[in-house]
Amino acid sequence: MRYQGRVSLRLPTAVPSWFEEWPSFLRDDVAPKCAAKEGSVCEWVWTETESRWLANAVEWLLAKPIQVLLIIIAAMLVRWVLHRFINGLTSVGNGETDDKPADGDKKKKPKILRPFREKASSALLASGLMTERRAQRASTLGSVLRSVTSIIIFVVAGSTILGLFNINLAPLVASAGIAGVALGFGTQSLVRDYLSGIFMILEDQYGVGDIVDLGEAGGTVENIGLRVTTVRDVRGVVWYIRNGEILRVGNKSQGWAQVVIDVPMPFGTDLEKAHEVLTESAARLTEEDDFKDDLLAPPEVLGVEQMTATGMMLRVTVRTTTASQWRVARELRARISADLDAAGIVSGITPTPAPAPPA
């Protein structure tokens, strides 16, 4: 070969002369299965060498590892794209804006939460907790979606790789089913916690900043996870409650609240005068600048609610915004007590002494 200014590389088109001197056992008459794929490396090696062993070796050592690598790269690429898409759905900055944001600050609603209805109160919407509530809810849903997509992608990629090596998947699927049943019995409480957490978040039963009653524990919700809900009570104690153990939820921060005050009165009290004093006390509260925004309806004096052997109860009710019912109730009790004393009406039930035993 003379040098002509360029170098050309060509694959051999015929069997090398040294191959004809190989032992006869290296040459086969029956083509391997992999040679049936036109254009494959195995088919090319078989055509050139007629060696079944060499064709299979090249297929296993060169072609299949490259195919496995391509499948893994494709799976990771699809996973990255889907996770990036989910992150865009759960991002707080990529959603719609509230109509009346608090303090002029525009709070964005993540796109993933648009199909779901929110049950937050007006007081929570006006506070700075709404953004955190939405962020935690969107983050939890995003975590579930990312985990589900990763599992599906890796299962499909794994089954495809096993299929390349002609591994029968039926026994593996059966074994996985048996293992899943055994694992389900062992971790059923954990699965129940996660499922309960998912449905609580989807239904927006409560969120960060809500005041809830969860049975043995109650208080302000500080954090919601798929497995555990964190609540801080009025004494500052933090409760960690498994979602699967929550059988009922009393949310005191949704919609509106009702203040109910029962005023004890002894028998013989002028009910008409007492009713008038209670009505005036409640009416003056609605005129106060500090409380008029908390009241959704005028207070009502319902009259005698209960009678016992020692006295009777007069009930006063008022509808308020959520999270303000305790403040309104404390102020209204103080005003009622002061006005009754000023009117000369004795409030409270005086214990009646027991009759003396017969001599």
UniProtKB/TrEMBL annotation:
Residues 148-188 form the Mechanosensitive ion channel transmembrane helices 2/3 domain. Residues 259-345 form the Mechanosensitive ion channel MscS C-terminal domain. InterPro entries: LSM_dom_sf, MS_channel_1st, MS_channel_C, MscS_beta-dom_sf, MscS_channel_2nd, MscS_channel_C_sf, MscS_channel_TM-2, YbiO_bact. The keyword Transmembrane helix applies. The keyword Transmembrane helix applies. The chain crosses the membrane at residues 61-82, 143-165, 171-191. Residues 190-251 form the Mechanosensitive ion channel MscS domain. Gene3D superfamilies: 1.10.287.1260, 2.30.30.60, 3.30.70.100. Its main location: membrane. GO terms for cellular component: plasma membrane. Pfam families: MS_channel_1st (PF21088), MS_channel_2nd (PF00924), MS_channel_3rd (PF21082). SUPFAM superfamilies: Mechanosensitive channel protein MscS (YggB), C-terminal domain, Mechanosensitive channel protein MscS (YggB), transmembrane region, Sm-like ribonucleoproteins. It is a multi-pass membrane protein. It is found in: Cell membrane. Keywords: Cell membrane, Membrane, Transmembrane, Transmembrane helix. One of its GO terms (molecular function) is mechanosensitive monoatomic ion channel activity. Belongs to the MscS (TC 1.A.23) family. This is Small conductance mechanosensitive channel. It comes from Cryptosporangium aurantiacum.
